[in-house]
Amino acid sequence: MAYKISNDCIACGTCIDECPLGAISEGEEHYTIDPELCAECGTCADVCPSGAISL
């Protein structure tokens, strides 16, 4: 199961720089994670200042 970014995302961009697989991209309202690319490493969730990323 891939990580997901909730509406609590503040679009700061911290997660996009940390994802080793480039699975995160900027969406219309907040960042999104491509479930096909996500390796479930949790790096993005670890650095998210708003706690918007979870499994």
Brief synopsis:
With 55 residues, the protein is of the alpha+beta class.
Would you write up a description of this structure?
The chain is an alpha+beta fold and 55 residues long. It has one domain (4-54): Alpha-Beta Plaits. It is 18% helix and 18% strand. The chain contains two helices and four strands. A two-stranded antiparallel sheet has the order 1-4. Strands 2-3 form a two-stranded antiparallel sheet. The mean pLDDT is 95.
Q: List the quaternary state of the chains.
A: single chain
Top CATH class: Alpha Beta
Q: Strand tally, please?
A: 4
Number of helices: 2
* Helix/sheet category: alpha+beta
Stretches with pLDDT under 50, minimum 5 residues = none
Shape: globular
- In percent terms, what proportion of residues is strand? 15-25%
Helix and strand string, N-terminal first?
A: EHEEHE
Strand order of the largest sheet: 1-4
Average pLDDT, rounded to a whole number, is: 95
Radius of gyration: 9 Å
Task: Offer a few descriptive terms.
2 helices, two-stranded antiparallel sheet, 18% helix, globular, alpha+beta, 4 strands, 55 residues, single chain, Alpha-Beta Plaits
Topology:
Layout: E1 4-5, H1 14-18, E2 24-26, E3 31-33, H2 43-47, E4 53-54
Antiparallel strand pairs: 1-4, 2-3
